[in-house]
Design brief:
- The structure is a single chain.
- With 324 residues, the protein is of the alpha/beta class.
- The protein has two domains: 149 residues, Aspartate/ornithine carbamoyltransferase (Rossmann fold, 3-Layer(aba) Sandwich), CATH 3.40.50; 147 residues, Aspartate/ornithine carbamoyltransferase (Rossmann fold), CATH 3.40.50.1370.
- Helices cover 32% and strands 14% of the residues.
- A five-stranded parallel β-sheet has the order 7-6-5-8-9, with helices on one face.
- α4 links the parallel β3 and β4.
- It starts with 23 loop residues before the first helix and ends in a 17-residue tail after the last helix.
Length: 324
């Protein structure tokens, strides 16, 4: 393992802001690196010296369990120093702007800033204001690139291929950053995507992203994988009526054992709302959900390593100047 991964060296500023920043070669390199890290974690001593002397700052303006903990552990597994900042109890609670927070963090000279923020475009702003590599850990309903990468890793481990897979994404696509990133990522690797949701929970013109659309739950029958999305109620417009009720939604679009065919795999990015988008019998059955959680660690290790060595993407400063 030590021979495969060379020590990082300073290079041009690079960020992972969106799946759109990655081509297929980038994705395949990241997944291969993640597999190398997965093998290293099978040893009794799991810590690697790869990023010793580097500093990773996790800044989360929204609550998170899986993403924040896996990024922190990923950095520690690579021997990086870490600092975690939550909005609650920080200067953000006192009215500090994202710009001022970014400038404060930049004064500490971190190598990587991992940011989750409810505002679309927040990671681009931080990338413009700081000298650090910036990783988008979720910005509003826009993008969540590392979730899409860990989902690809999970699929590749389960099927030993990505090209030609058929994935049905079921649920609240309209408000889901996971869905947007995953649709792009699956398209990059040659997979086929079907979106299944009521029309009120589908973005207008989503077919332009190269996926099929259906409002009939039976459309999941042809897929190799059924990917469940929860209702993103925290992002829904106040007073808007997207569905008659959660009970009716579950009756029409909930993924149940009866709606799955034999051998179909089920995925969910979490957190799950049992009894709404996913039946408890499905959630507790033979799914890929736990595999996704485990994949999060090694994929985020790969992202941190890649940013500080090869780099999945170079973002010229000129491309960021227009971000407010």
């Amino acid at each position: 393992m030590g021979e495969e991964l060379r020590p990082p060296s300073r290079r041009a500023r690079r960020h992972l802001l969106s799946i759109a920043d990655l081509d297929r070669d980038d994705i395949e390199r990241l997944l291969a690196t993640a597999r190398s890290f997965a093998r290293s974690l099978e040893r009794e001593l799991k810590k690697l010296p790869t990023l010793r002397g580097r500093t990773v700052v996790n800044v989360f303006y929204e609550s998170s369990t899986r993403t924040s903990s896996s990024f922190e552990l990923a950095a520690k597994r690579l021997s990086a120093d870490t600092m975690s900042i939550k909005a609650a109890g920080s200067a953000v609670d006192k009215g500090e702007s994202l710009k001022d927070t970014a400038l404060t963090l930049d004064a500490y000279d971190p190598d990587v800033i991992v940011l989750r923020h409810p505002q679309i475009g927040a990671p681009q702003l931080v990338a413009r204001l700081t000298e650090a590599h910036v990783v988008n850990a979720g910005d509003g309903k826009h993008q969540h690139p590392t979730q899409a990468l860990l989902d690809l890793y999970t699929l590749q481990e389960a099927f030993d291929r990505l090209d030609g897979l058929h994935v049905a994404i079921v649920g609240d696509v309209l408000h889901s950053r996971v869905a947007r990133s995953l649709i792009q990522a699956l398209g990059r690797v040659g997979a086929h995507v079907t979106l299944v949701a009521p029309p009120t929970l589908l973005p207008r013109g989503i077919e332009a992203m190269g996926c099929e659309v259906s409002s009939d739950i039976r459309a999941i029958g042809a897929a190799d994988v059924v990917y469940c999305l929860r209702m993103q109620r925290e992002r829904m417009q106040a007073g808007a009526s997207y569905i008659p009720s959660l009970r009716e939604y579950a009756a029409c679009f909930g993924v149940t054992p009866e709606r799955l065919r034999s051998g179909q795999k089920v995925m969910h990015p979490g957190p799950m709302n049992r009894g709404v988008e996913i039946d408890p019998r499905v959630a507790d059955g033979d799914t890929l959900i736990e595999t996704q959680v485990r994949a999060g660690l090694v994929v985020r290790m790969a992202v941190l390593y890649d940013l500080l060595t090869h780099g999945p993407v170079v973002v010229p400063v000129s491309q960021l100047e227009g971000v407010a």
